[in-house]
Amino acid sequence: MGDVMELQLRQATKTLMEKREENILVCTHVDTDGITSRVILEELFNRLEIEGDFKFLKQLNMETLEDIPFKDYNLIIFADLGSGQISLIGKKMEEYNLWGVRDHSVIVLDHHIPAQSKIPDNLIHVNPWSDNLDGGREICGAGVAYKFAKSCNPSYTDLARYAVLGAVGDIQNLGGSFIGMNREILEDAKVRGDVLEFPDLQFYGKHTRPMFVSMRYFTDVRTDLMNNDSRIVNFIKRINEKYNLEIDPREPICSLSHGEKRVIGSEFLSRCNKYVPLSWVKYLPKVIFGMSYEFRGETVMTPLRNLEEFSTCINACSRYGDYKTPLEVLKGNRGKYYNRMLYMLNKHKRNLFKALKYIREEVEIIQRDKFQYFEIERDKIEEGIVGIVAGMSYSIEDVDWRKPIFAIKERDKGYKVSARCPKLLTFAQDINLGDVISYASRKVGGIGGGHKFACGAYIPYKEDFIDHIENRL
Predict the structure, then answer these.
(1) Quick one: 249 exposed, middle or buried, by C-beta within 10 A (0-12, 13-18, 19+)?
(2) Contacts from 367-370 at CB under 8 Å and sequence distance 24+?
(3) Which of 48, 58, 166, 303 has its CA 20 to 30 A from that of 450?
(4) Can you tell me the distance from the alpha carbon of 75 to that of 122, in angstroms, rounded to the nearest whole number?
């Protein structure tokens, strides 16, 4: 951690302690990173015996800021959001005559790229970018919340597990493992025995899917195995014959030994070599091999054991506006909340299947020189899953897997845009979709941003937007 962030954390801790008896509001984002940030801060408040109000925010903009009663609270904390909207928060404080007023403070605990803006003395902005540390790779929002909790009391290392889950949910292990402050936080969780880390294959569904299904949906490289179960089964059969093994493709990946995983990965890598440009081959191991992260206390072969799958469960609720269920499950309140989560997970899968069918059968994929896009009618796909569907669309033949894809959905006012690209493309072409969508949305009076390979925007109109994407790419 850098010197500036260290200082920011000390100031934030001092402010919380000074205002612990006063009115406090905590606002967090609604994805895995935001919900894990909330759990950490709730638990911190419980331990410090601080009363506080908590609020989820789907996004932070002029509209949602209007709903926050700044004057009613002596301290407002924003977690996993706020940095990109720091100028808007400053404007609101000025509007309410709170700029520099010591009785009213704001703390922003975030990892997104900050907007350039003058901020008041009573706004403490904790962000890794202050030390030129990459908030997209080195620490997530829940990680910043954890550092804040640890600054309040260094013994609170049991909260590290939530920050690790937040980082996995934010795909900060993109290169296969964690770096920077994420690595330090992971070590806290490993020392306590809460999180396991081990080398693994980078197929999704290691605990909940048969192996052939995990391989069927691998879209980072398009091979002849994609969407072809019989070829996958024959592929495994030939591996068994070649290495004298008895791997059952119907078993999940977690049931394989380390040696069996290595063999499957090596053979799969050889298969992929035939389908990628020569200059991309060196990046293949990064999308096939990497580290797995699991909660030691969760049951094997359930959706909550592997952190990637746990994150999907959270998103299956939060993307439909149900934030309470994942919050309670994270806090250990299982029973009805766990059952509700499984119900939402199944509903989520059905919706994704239906949405992908719609894209495949009714939507035209429009090809441009450096990217591709498709448009979604207003009522056809729920807004919360547009990004996931964009990513899944790489399993459709008409989609060029070597180019980024943008999904543009009509909404009541303007459009929602989600962009995705395979991880291999991120490594091989050094594409930064977050930068592209931020630039293009600003040009049309919208707002957008995100990660190199996954991001989103809200725009008022789409006509020039496509051209701005082309120019930036």
Answers:
(1) buried
(2) 367/400, 367/403, 368/466, 368/470, 369/470, 370/403, 370/404, 370/470, 370/473
(3) 303
(4) 10
Alpha-carbon gap, residue 454 to 131, rounded angstroms:
24
Looking at residue 153, its amino acid is: N
Which residues lie across from 260 on neighbouring strands? none
End-to-end CA distance of the chain: 33
Instruction: Please answer whether residues 376 and 408 qualify as being in contact, where contact means their C-beta atoms are separated by less than 8 angstroms.
Output: yes
What counts of helices (H) and strands (E) characterise the chain?
A: 18, 13
Rg over alpha carbons for the chain, rounded to the nearest Å, is 23
| Residue 64 Cα distances to 35, 51, 85, 89, angstroms | 18, 23, 11, 11
Look up residue 271 and give its amino acid. Answer: R
The dihedral built from the CA positions of residue 37, 28, 135 and 148, taken in this order, carries a sign that is negative
Angle at alpha carbon of residue 466, lines to 465 and 472, rounded to 5°? 90
Architecture of the domain made up of 363-472: Roll (3.10)
CATH code of 3-189, in short, is 3.90.1640.30
Domain boundaries, the chain: 3-189, 199-349, 363-472
- Cβ-in-10-Å burial (0-12, 13-18, 19+) of 23 comes to middle
DSSP-derived secondary structure letter, 219:
-
For the record, the structure tokens of 60 come out as 């932070």
Beta strands in 115-177 (DSSP E): 123-126
Q: What is the pLDDT along the chain (473 residues), one digit of tens a residue?
A: 789 999 999 999 999 999 999 999 999 999 999 999 999 999 999 999 999 999 999 988 888 999 999 999 999 999 999 998 999 999 999 999 999 998 999 999 999 989 888 999 999 999 999 999 999 899 999 999 999 999 999 999 999 999 999 999 999 998 899 999 999 999 999 999 999 999 999 999 999 999 999 999 999 999 999 999 999 999 999 999 999 999 999 999 999 999 999 999 999 999 999 999 999 999 999 999 999 999 999 999 999 999 999 999 999 999 999 999 999 999 999 899 999 999 999 999 999 999 999 999 999 999 999 999 999 998 899 998 999 999 999 999 999 999 999 999 999 889 999 999 999 998 998 888 988 998 999 899 988 888 888 899 999 988 889 989 998 88
Give me the sign of the Cα torsion angle 455, 458, 459, 462. Answer: positive
Q: Is the distance from CB of 394 to CB of 218 less than 8 angstroms?
A: no
